[in-house]
């Protein structure tokens, strides 16, 4: 027996943690159901790893090609999800008014961004597992400190997420689509992913080395291929990009 005017169960918004988790699950399902996103985030990195490890297309220096390529492909997987895929998906959600409608829900805007970040991390875990399994099948022999690898991947995700959200929140959807794919291709070639940076002129090497994809791929390569310690220089570059990108995204992101 309840008192008149009361309801059981009591109506109201779900706990914030549950809302973020539910939105993250939804974001992950939508990403995994999108064929174009899967092509970008899973198929392309996998094909590049298999192709360049099996065919002598690029001189990767001494040792097995897969030992050079696997860290770069891991960096590419992070960029494809955290930057390219997230920028395109968020840009079109903004264009179609999805973000505007979600902003009126009990889920706060920062909670929506947190859910998107969790979705990116889940997708990256699946990517890393897939690339690692394929690389092992191709004869990969990684070395180094797992903590250093984890820090590089986390800071790389932060850096690329900030840049992706900044692009999606300031440009039109069509411009984001074109720009994100163009940047992906340019960084694939000039970011030390499949082509060593020492193949470029000295001046270009210095500039390219400051890019987040170069810092991530070189840092992973130093640890996993050469067994180096903590790559503080590369971690510093990624941290700087992360701070700049996320700060700018928070400042200039437009929800409509």
From TrEMBL:
It comes from the Bacteria. It holds the Pfam family ABC2_membrane_3. It is a multi-pass membrane protein. Residues 32-256 form the ABC transmembrane type-2 domain. Its main location: membrane. GO terms for molecular function: ABC-type transporter activity. One of its GO terms (cellular component) is ATP-binding cassette (ABC) transporter complex. The chain crosses the membrane at residues 38-57, 69-92, 113-141, 147-168, 175-197, 235-253. It is found in: Membrane. PANTHER family: NODULATION PROTEIN J. This is Transport permease protein.
């Amino acid at each position: 027996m309840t008192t008149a005017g009361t309801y059981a169960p009591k109506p109201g918004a779900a706990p914030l943690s549950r809302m973020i988790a539910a939105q993250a699950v939804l974001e992950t399902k939508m990403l995994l159901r999108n064929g174009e996103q899967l092509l970008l985030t899973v198929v392309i990195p996998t094909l590049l790893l298999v192709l360049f490890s099996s065919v002598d297309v690029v001189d990767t220096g001494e040792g097995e090609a897969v030992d050079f390529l696997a860290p770069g492909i891991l960096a590419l997987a992070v960029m494809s999800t955290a930057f390219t895929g997230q920028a395109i998906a968020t840009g079109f959600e903004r264009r179609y008014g999805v973000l505007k409608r979600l902003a009126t829900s009990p889920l706060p805007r920062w909670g929506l961004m947190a859910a998107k970040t969790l979705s990116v991390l889940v997708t990256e875990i699946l990517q890393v597992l897939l690339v690692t399994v394929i690389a092992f099948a191709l004869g990969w022999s990684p070395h180094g400190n797992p903590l250093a690898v984890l820090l590089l991947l986390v800071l790389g995700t932060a850096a690329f997420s900030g840049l992706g959200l900044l692009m999606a929140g300031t440009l039109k959807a069509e411009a984001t689509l074109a720009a994100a794919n163009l940047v992906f291709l340019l960084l694939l070639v000039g970011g030390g992913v499949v082509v060593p940076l020492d193949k470029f002129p000295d001046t270009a090497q210095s500039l390219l080395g400051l890019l987040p994809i170069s810092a991530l791929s070189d840092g992973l390569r130093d640890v996993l291929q050469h067994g180096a310690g903590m790559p503080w220089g590369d971690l510093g570059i990624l941290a700087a990009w992360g701070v700049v990108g996320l700060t700018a995204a928070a400042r200039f992101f437009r929800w409509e």
